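tokens incoming
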């Protein structure tokens, strides 16, 4: 396993970058600990594959350093980094059998036959490939080929890290759940550092101990799934994670109140003035909005109700802005307008997209 450090790392595909927008990866410094299961999560084009390729050695960064266990590997080729990689599309040898494909990474490194047989038996059992071992890879389906590719990444027991780049794209939905659970179990048993690139929040949150959320070339938050849900450090994190995502509303902040149009929404603490030049917003997850009784809370315009079985999603507007709230399945929804109240402890204040700590708090 490996401790991976990124020290003032940045990358541009331009020869002479001169402004922040020229960088595919903006400067970052992070440490990923031994044996962690990390997911790089973000939309297409946010820089997550570029970052993975820098860690693997496929791309040399424009600036900064990559360290494995304190050793500078920034300019070392991939084969010198003691890692395994699994790509979005299967990388296998069609002329070989399934067993030969799984054995190849070990055979190529001179591993003894008994160890090879033991490891490919373990990996084939884990991935459900036992019955396919003597079949040529050429005739297999795309998802079966990707399972072989996963197996080739997992078969080496000596690697410091395994890097996955959207590995389940070609796998059918039911198989995705099974393979994610299997990968999680492998991580727990092997304690190897795993980094998993995906744009799918479900994949990230169910696989990783910590999720690295990227947006526009930046790491905007690194945290556990619970931290990302309960305390998004950036409005993008709140919007991207959750279904529905966090409500983000322009607001005027005055002490312990946020003003959105005519509505005054209580905050969990007081805030210092943000300044006129700052884009000030509040974020409230739909789960922390409740139907209010009488004159409590604030009035919203109800546009539609989505009944999804476990609960109802109320699609509303506040001051002309869309707002989603979660109501219990059994809740009676008035047809002539509703009022909502927010849990003050879960109303976050943002300045230019970044969460602002309350006065006297971190």
């Amino acid at each position: 396993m490996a401790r991976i450090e990124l020290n003032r790392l940045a990358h541009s595909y331009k020869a002479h970058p001169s402004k922040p927008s020229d960088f595919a990866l903006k400067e970052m410094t992070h440490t990923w600990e031994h044996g962690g299961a990390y997911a790089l999560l973000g939309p297409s084009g946010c820089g997550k594959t570029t970052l993975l390729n820098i860690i693997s050695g496929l791309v040399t960064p424009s600036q900064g350093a990559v360290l494995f266990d304190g050793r500078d590997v920034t300019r070392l080729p991939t084969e010198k980094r003691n890692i395994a990689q699994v790509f979005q599309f299967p990388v296998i040898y069609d002329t070989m059998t399934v067993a030969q494909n799984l054995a190849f990474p070990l055979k190529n490194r001179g591993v003894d036959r008994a160890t090879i047989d033991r490891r490919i038996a373990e990996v084939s059992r884990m991935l459900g490939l036992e019955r396919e071992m003597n079949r040529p890879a050429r005739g297999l389906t795309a998802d079966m080929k990707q399972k072989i590719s996963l197996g080739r990444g997992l078969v080496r027991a000596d690697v410091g890290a395994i890097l996955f780049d959207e590995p389940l794209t070609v796998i059918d939905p039911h198989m995705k759940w099974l393979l994610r659970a299997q990968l999680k179990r492998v991580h727990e048993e092997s304690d190897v550092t795993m980094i998993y690139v995906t744009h799918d929040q479900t994949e990230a949150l169910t696989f990783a101990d910590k999720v690295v959320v990227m947006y526009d070339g930046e790491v905007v938050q690194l945290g556990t799934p619970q931290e990302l849900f309960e305390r998004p450090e950036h409005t993008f994190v709140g919007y991207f994670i959750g279904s529905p995502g966090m409500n983000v509303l322009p607001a005027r902040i005055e002490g312990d109140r946020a003003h959105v149009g005519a509505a005054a929404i209580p905050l969990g603490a007081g805030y210092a003035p943000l300044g006129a030049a700052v884009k000030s917003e509040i974020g409230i997850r739909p789960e922390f909005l409740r139907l209010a009784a009488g004159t409590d809370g604030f009035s919203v315009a109800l546009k539609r109700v989505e009944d999804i079985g476990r609960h109802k999603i109320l699609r509303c507007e506040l001051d002309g802005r869309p707002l989603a709230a979660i109501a219990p399945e059994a809740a009676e929804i008035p047809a002539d307008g509703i009022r909502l109240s927010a849990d003050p402890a879960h109303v976050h204040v943002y300045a230019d997209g970044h969460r602002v700590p309350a006065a006297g708090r971190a």
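note: The chain has a mean pLDDT of 91.
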